[in-house]
Amino acid sequence: MRKILLSAVFIFFYFNCYAEQNIYSIYMMGTKIGSSTDKWSEKNDPSGNCILTLDSSSEMEINRGEFSIKLKSSSIVRTACKTFTPVDIRSESSEISSTLKATGKNINGTFKAEIEKNGNIETFSYPLKDDVTFFSLILKKIPVQQLIKGGAAKVISEDSLSVKEISYSGILTPSGTTRVTVNYSGVPIVFEILNGVVIKSELQNGLISYVLEGYDTASEKSASAPSKGTDIIESTAIENSGITVKKPRNTVKAVFSFSGKNGMEIPDIPKSCFQKVITEKGSATVTVTSELCRGDKPEKQDTLPNLYEDSNNRNITEAARKVSEGAPDSNEIIKRMVRFVFKHIKDKNYKFGNLSASEVLAKKAGDCTEHSTLLAALLKSLNIPVKMAYGIVLDDQGRFFFHNWNVAFNGTDWIPVDATFGMEKADSSRVVLIFGSGSSRSREDVSLTVLKFMRTIEIVVMGFEYEK
Fold first, then answer.
1. What b/e sequence results for 114-144 when a residue is b if at least 16 CB atoms lie within 10 Å of its CB, and e otherwise?
2. What pTM does this model have?
3. Packed helices 314-324 and 330-344: angle between N→C axes, nearest 10 degrees
4. Residue 160 structural domain
5. 29 with 313: CB under 8 angstroms?
6. Are 214 and 242 members of one domain?
């Protein structure tokens, strides 16, 4: 009898009021790289409250250099049906053997979040206000008329679980769809909506696009199978249309001119003691030197462990202790650590991109991000302030690639260092686009900043000086 009652309660309170499934093909610059599925449903919880659920999953395969990386992600987002007030979220993303898990829950008006990576846990909380909802639900929440009128809103990012500000505007197209452009922290995302369903979305001028099954264009249909030909590293490289620099790793000073393609505005470029920026309408001149400089004082976060730079990991602290033993000062420690990371990572490849420092230490593999993450954790474990620098670097073939290095503090001056190249003092043929750390929020901000520069700018080398 009890089982029958329990079944009856389950059927009554979890009656499926509404269900919808949408399957999308994922393209990168016109080449299919995977697929994504969104499952929408409405159900009443045991208290009789209507809960809207979005269950999403995706699989992608991206070429980075000679390696093919398979990415998987899944998330379950729940909100109140009518108000779209957040209830909770669970998500997981993985590539090869590396996994990132995130959970968040609305507890009496406070959103409590936890993000876990390789045993490292980041927790934070904030009050839910300003009618905030999850980003993936914002187009469900705002009526079409309001989307066309335009406005602004605050949303919770499903990636970092932090609150972001967005703006939006829309138009009705001749084909009867509503085209909405959302500015997400400076990155444009265009959505095509038909009868309340997103049939296409496009990130950063077609860099990444999602197309609902049945709405593929002729060119997209021709790329129906995932391709092995699109390399994200090669595809996002920027040609230097200025002076040729034959030995970019030997420069101690370089001057660059940035301008937007087709009249586009260039994103903000940070200033620092070794990077001077002069901005004019539609362009910027950046002068970079590789000399040590005073600059701003270190911040608290420059010595603290985080999700990726797990400087409190026992293996990290032990490695740092051994490498630094007998070093007379911070300068020597920094040099030793750069040399250690360069030699320790023997398998220099592009197949990772999401490893914590302790994972890098164990695997002895990775690209520029892994080199920089490990170096940052080793230095932090010795209480030496260090920042992650994300930007572009010029190669000897005249192309700029997106790159990651560090800036370390020796007690009086900041030193740009690049463990990927084994450089105890980095060259000047590079430009920092953003300084970051290994927290989830910082990682998302870095990704968004890099996206702003992809396929939108032109760079000219105006002059340089070699080390004498």
1. ebbbbebebebeeebeeebbbbbbbbbbbee
2. 0.87
3. 120
4. 12-221
5. no
6. no
* Joined tokens for residue 314: 């026992």
SS3 2: helix
Structural domains of the chain, count: 2
DSSP state of 196: T
3 state SS of 452: helix
109-168 pLDDT, tens digit per residue, is 999 999 998 889 999 999 998 799 999 999 999 999 999 999 999 999 998 999 999 999
| Selection from 234, 227, 189, 233 nearest residue 208 by Cα | 189
Distances in Å between the Cα of 260 and the Cα atoms of 29, 232, 277, 282, 452 are 19, 21, 16, 6, 11
- Where would I find the H helices in 169-279? 218-221, 232-235
**Domain final residue, candidates 221, 250, 268:** 221
Does residue 248 lie in a domain region?
yes
User: 194-198, 222-226, 282-286, 398-402: lowest mean pLDDT where?
Assistant: 222-226
391: which 2 tokens? 């930007």
The tens digit of pLDDT for each residue in 168-226 reads 999 999 999 999 999 998 889 999 999 999 999 998 878 889 999 988 765 555 544 44
Q: Which of 158, 188, 221 is the last residue of a domain?
A: 221
Strand ranges in 85-186 using DSSP code E only, listed in sequence order: 86-95, 98-107, 110-117, 120-127, 133-134, 151-156, 163-172, 178-184
Q: Is 80 exceeded by the pLDDT of residue 16? A: no
- Rounded to whole angstroms, the Cα distance separating 351 from 363 reads 12
Helix (H) or strand (E) holding 433: strand 430-436
